[in-house]
Write a structure and sequence with these properties.
The protein has about 425 residues and is an alpha+beta fold. About 40% of the residues lie in helices and about 20% in strands. The strands form five sheets. It has an eight-stranded mixed beta sheet. It has a three-stranded mixed beta sheet with strand order 7-13-14. A two-stranded antiparallel sheet has the order 2-3.
Amino acid sequence: MLDAKFVRENADAVAAAMQARGEGWDAHAFLELDAKRRELIGEVESRQAVRNETSKRIGELMKAGKRDEADAAKAQVREINEAIEALDAELETVEARVTEILMTTPNLPDATVPRGADETENVEVRRWGTPREFGFDPKAHWDLGPELGIIDFERGVKLARSRFVVLGGGGARLSRALINFMLDTQGEHGYQEWAVPAMANAETLTGTGQLPKFEDDLFKTADGLYLTPTAEVQLTNLHRDEVLEVDQLPLHYCAYTPCFREEAGSAGRDTRGMIRVHQFDKVELVKFATPEASFDELEGMVADAERILQLLGLPYRTVVLCTGDMGFASAKTYDIEVWLPSYSDYKEISSCSNCTDFQARRASIKYRSPGEFKGSRLVHTLNGSGLAVGRTLVAVLENYQRADGTVEVPEALRPYMGGQEVIGAR
């Protein structure tokens, strides 16, 4: 969430940033509402001061035996209270509207983010590895997996509905191997592992920005809990309403969770296979940093996610997202895209973002540095996939498939697969 004072003092700059993001944002409407809010607050405080002074006089008048004047003063207090009550009701309405605007306004893009309308204007920053040249016609994972008996789309539909998938045998084992491999690798590079609930309450999702704007993308239970769309939600909110000490920072956290998304608005996109499903596994990375260090921490997080693909020998490219393609809470985002033969293209497998103080303001996460400043300041929060497990499984199957229809297990995963070197038909 943006700071109301900052928005008020920089309304034109905020409007320009929102335009760069492709968002409609009415600076005049916000300023008008904010001015009305401050006017109402002033009126309430003024009447309260008069009421308090009049209330004091009532006692003095009663002691002096001036009952008629005291009764008149009491009537005046009642009138003031009625006026304050009406003003409070109006103020509540105006404040709710101001809050709604602030809660649904995206973060400001960092100055280093390229300006652009959509994903076609994202900027590639590097590539690693060379896509494999096959001596045979490679199969897409939606054909290869069922033929091996390790991916079952039909049973996923039978057990749930479309865009749910069942993994069996070598597929289930490969998925579990990837999770453990990712967690171990990130742990070796300083990330503290957490095991968190697969559900979250509304306050938790509001803290990271999924609510209120993106409720349609979430699965909700009958009693008001939500299935988690990403462990970013829980990991970031571990420190909600807390004040950290500067010597604790930076904090590096990771967690595995199943993730659930309605994929609202994605009809017709990646309908085949496991690229866009309602339930998927992911290892998430989250950092808490000082404002001065957060963009360096972002570069480090991207490198940590890239390392997984390097160890697996999977070709990828890294792009910085333009303003029109960025996520709601992000000030700067890198996407890492893995090579998939089925698409003859790169597909997103990780998104790493610096949210600056946007989430910390919503969740009230601060830090103290007594030798540097008085009081407390908002931390910067960062998050990234380290990695999306299902898409990594797809990349392994497609890039490591062999002419006989089997799949070679990457060397880095063999210790997690009991030494298994090849996945064959069940």
